[in-house]
């Protein structure tokens, strides 16, 4: 039975949840992994929803076995992080989105769903653009922090798209954040921009992001294999934002 199994009682007050499912540029995963490491967030729940591969994860120099998709918490900052070490299959039946959305609503959390917008020939002399969409009453949070609206019509695919769709259908407060990113390789610079321009103000936290610049090459190497697996997946299984003109 699909569920999110909490390991410990949580003491959170209307927390913000940052979602880090693998997608284009791995921007969501890089950003969420960085939050977990920077704040030394506590592993609090295993995510056992549909569409998650039945695999086990282990860490270097440790014997513990972890599920591939997990929730971490920082009670002091009222912050949650959804971390995934595997790409997820497309959520055609909505089971995964229903599972996560129900838990989010039960815990009065506002999710920030993250996606990369693949851009060919990115100009690295300028910062990648970040924009936001929202469901429920969450649009006011985007307006309050001057986060841009989309420059053109588009869609978000993959599991993250399913999560945003489910939030909109149920009227749940949720934010979708999109950042221009490298279509082929892990993009720490785009993840940094996502944190600086949107996650920090929306979650009300101060995140040190210098490491994402200083160790960009190392981060790219660490995430390269997962990025290759994402490229090998069918296009509609990969979380990404795309302009609608691609279909017209």
From TrEMBL:
Coiled-coil residue windows: none
InterPro entries in alphabetical order: Proteasome_assmbl_chaperone_2, PSMG2_sf
Region (Disordered): 222-248
PANTHER family hit by this protein: 3-ISOPROPYLMALATE DEHYDRATASE (PTHR35610:SF8), 3-ISOPROPYLMALATE DEHYDRATASE-RELATED (PTHR35610)
Protein name, entry field: PAC2 family protein
């Amino acid at each position: 039975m699909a569920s999110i199994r909490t390991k410990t009682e949580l003491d959170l007050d209307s927390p913000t949840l940052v979602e880090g499912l693998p997608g284009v540029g791995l921007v969501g995963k890089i950003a969420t992994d960085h939050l977990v490491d920077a704040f030394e967030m506590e592993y609090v729940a295993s995510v056992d929803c549909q569409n998650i591969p039945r695999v086990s994860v282990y860490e270097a120099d440790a014997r513990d076995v972890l599920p591939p998709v997990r929730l971490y918490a920082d009670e002091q900052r009222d912050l949650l992080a959804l971390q995934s070490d595997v790409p997820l299959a497309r959520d055609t039946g909505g089971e995964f989105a229903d599972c996560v959305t129900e838990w989010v609503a039960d815990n009065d959390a506002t999710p920030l769903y993250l996606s990369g917008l693949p851009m060919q020939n990115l100009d690295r002399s300028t910062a990648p653009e970040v924009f936001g969409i929202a469901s429920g009453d969450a649009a006011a949070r985007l307006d309050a922090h001057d986060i841009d609206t989309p420059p053109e019509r588009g869609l978000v695919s993959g599991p993250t798209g399913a999560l945003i769709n489910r939030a909109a259908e149920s009227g749940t407060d949720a934010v979708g954040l999109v950042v221009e990113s490298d279509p082929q390789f892990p993009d720490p610079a785009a993840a940094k921009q996502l944190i600086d321009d949107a996650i920090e103000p929306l979650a009300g936290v101060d995140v040190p992001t210098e490491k994402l610049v200083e160790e960009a090459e190392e981060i790219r190497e660490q995430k390269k294999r997962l990025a290759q697996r994402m490229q090998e997946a069918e296009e509609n299984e990969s979380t990404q934002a795309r302009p609608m003109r691609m279909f017209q």
